[in-house]
Every structure is written in structure tokens, then in C-alpha cells.
Write a structure and sequence with these properties.
307 residues; alpha+beta; Sulfite Oxidase, Chain A, domain 2; five-stranded mixed beta sheet; four-stranded antiparallel beta sheet; 24% helix; globular
Length: 307
């Protein structure tokens, strides 16, 4: 097996699902259109785009209840009576989230997502959600074919980098055919190509005090808040975590996150940030925006979205 890594067990990340019935559809009848076990979820939100904060807050309650219900079932306790809302807090709640943390600790660095064959690839990889960034800098770079694009890698590093697309391609590439699982219930299989994140971070040489990398993106929400995501350095070292430059053997188009997007097949789609402009290596996530490590996480989603 590649990289000597442990194959991940298939786990539905119920703790990250949000409201409006999407979770129920996922559990009852959602499967992908094609050769796998998930259905294309019509009218889903984007893989990591922006929704009204109220929806995300409602989703936090839903995902916790779903996680509790699924955990009870797994423990053989589903017939022990109705799950009361009080279980979303207190010692039992803490046990459930300890299990989530254990899953992250055991599989977050070493477990591999399933890889597929060329015949499984969705030729028209789904695009939905918000438009490409309206940022003036992004528009200028796009008009020039991203020749002037530079990916900044800075923060707590010994050797800050500003990498062109040519330099990113020269860093070596991993090609992988993996499934993108959206939090709303749909999935799609694509062939991704780009340097491993670990390789790019090694070029910058993170300092001993570094713990996380924050991905700053070109897109902003209607209030002007930038989109961002984060990983700890263990997740960043996963062999399937790549800075994707190509999708299905073609350079990323604007809608799919050109020129660079994060691709993490071991976590739900909202972690795979599009339109990455900068990677900042840091010791703490609290100073950034809402302090939870990502745009969605600041609205109640789970920071670790392992599947």
C-alpha cells in the first residue's frame, strides 16, 4: 500500500452535517450518481462556500443529535429509550467528542482515503455555490492566465516562499483519483494533481513553535469577510493532502478553484478550500476571525471533518 499508510475505514462524519434536512437525506437515500454508494444531492450548497450564519447555527444542533444517535446505535444502545436533548451536554457529550478526537489522532495523519480508477472519474465534476471571486487582484491574475500568481508561504517559517505555478509544478506532483464528499450529501470522483502540501511546507521550513497552517483565500462573503481554512501540521503531512493544480488532467478552471486549491480527500469538502492565495504557518488559531480555524468552523462546523 502506498506510503505504508493504514487504509481508512468508511465513516460518515455526522458531527459536521448541517440543517434543513440534508443530514436526513444523506442517511436515508443519498448516494452519488454513478458507481458508488452516495447519491447526487440536488440543490446542495457548495463544497465549502458561504451560507447564512443562521443555517450553520441550526446545523450545529442537528449534527450533534445525529452523532449521538449514530454513536448509540454503534454501542448497541439504540433501544434503551429516546435520546434526550440533555445528552448534547455533560459527560456523555464529552465521551462522544473524545471519540472524535481519537479518530483524528489515529487516522488524521496515516489513514488513506480510497483511490479509484480512471473509469470512475466524473467527467463533469460538479460545480455549485457562489461565483468565482470578485476580488480585483484575483481578476487581474486570471486575465493574465495566473502568470503573475505567487503562493505566499510565510509566518512561523525559516524560509518564507513566494511560489509561482511553475515552481509549484517543479516541486513534484501527486496524482490521485479520490471522492469529494460534500457535507450536504452529494459526492463526485475526480482526478487531482499537484504537489503534496508537506513538500511545499518543507520548502519553507516551519519553526519549532509552529502548530497549524492557515489557508487564506481570494473569496469573501457578502459582508466582506475573507474565506479561510486551517489544518494542523499532522493533517498537513498526510500523503493525500495536496495543493491541487489540475482536475481531470486539465489545469483548474476558475469555478473549481484556480489556480490552486487545497484537496483533502480524508475530510469533508468544506475543508478543501478553493482559490488559495497564502499559507500562513502559525502557533494558534484563535487570533484569526472567529477563532475556530475556518469560515465554516466559526459558524459551528467541526474543525476536524474526517470521513
Amino acid at each position: 500500500m502506498a506510503d505504508g499508510a493504514l487504509r481508512r475505514a468508511a465513516v460518515r462524519a455526522a458531527v459536521a452535517l448541517h440543517a434543513d434536512g440534508a443530514a436526513a437525506r444523506l442517511l436515508h437515500d443519498a448516494s452519488r450518481a454513478g458507481a458508488d454508494d452516495r447519491v447526487l444531492e440536488q440543490h446542495a450548497l457548495d463544497d465549502h462556500r458561504l451560507v447564512r450564519p443562521g443555517r450553520a447555527r441550526r446545523g450545529r444542533t442537528v449534527k450533534r443529535r445525529l452523532f449521538i444517535a449514530s454513536s448509540l446505535s454503534a454501542l448497541g444502545l439504540a433501544g434503551c429509550g429516546q435520546v434526550k436533548e440533555s445528552l448534547t451536554e455533560g459527560p456523555f457529550h464529552n465521551v462522544l467528542y473524545s471519540a472524535e478526537n481519537l479518530n483524528q489522532a489515529v487516522l488524521g495523519t496515516h489513514g488513506l482515503a480510497r483511490e479509484y480508477s480512471e473509469r470512475d472519474v466524473d467527467a463533469q465534476f460538479r460545480v455549485n455555490g457562489f461565483d468565482t471571486p470578485s476580488d480585483a487582484t484575483y481578476a487581474r491574475l486570471a486575465r493574465g492566465g495566473f502568470r503573475d500568481y505567487r503562493l505566499a508561504v510565510d509566518g512561523l517559517v525559516e524560509r518564507p516562499q513566494k511560489l509561482s505555478l511553475a515552481e509549484l509544478r517543479a516541486a513534484g506532483a501527486r496524482s490521485q483519483i479520490t471522492r469529494h464528499d460534500c457535507v450536504e450529501g452529494w459526492s463526485a470522483i475526480g482526478k487531482w494533481n499537484g504537489p503534496q502540501l508537506a513538500t511545499v511546507l518543507a520548502m519553507a521550513q516551519p519553526k519549532q513553535t509552529a502548530r497549524y497552517c492557515v489557508f487564506h483565500c481570494f473569496d469573501v462573503d457578502q459582508s466582506g469577510q475573507p474565506y479561510y481554512e486551517s489544518l494542523d501540521l499532522h493533517q498537513a503531512a498526510h500523503p493525500q493532502t495536496v495543493l491541487a493544480l489540475d482536475l481531470n488532467d486539465k489545469p483548474l478552471d476558475l469555478d473549481h478553484g484556480a489556480p490552486v486549491r487545497l484537496k483533502i480527500p480524508t475530510q469533508l469538502g468544506y475543508k478543501s478550500a478553493k482559490w488559495v492565495s497564502r499559507i500562513e504557518v502559525v502557533a494558534d488559531l484563535k487570533p484569526f476571525f472567529g477563532g475556530s480555524g475556518g469560515y465554516w468552523e466559526d459558524q459551528g462546523y467541526e474543525w476536524y471533518a474526517g470521513i
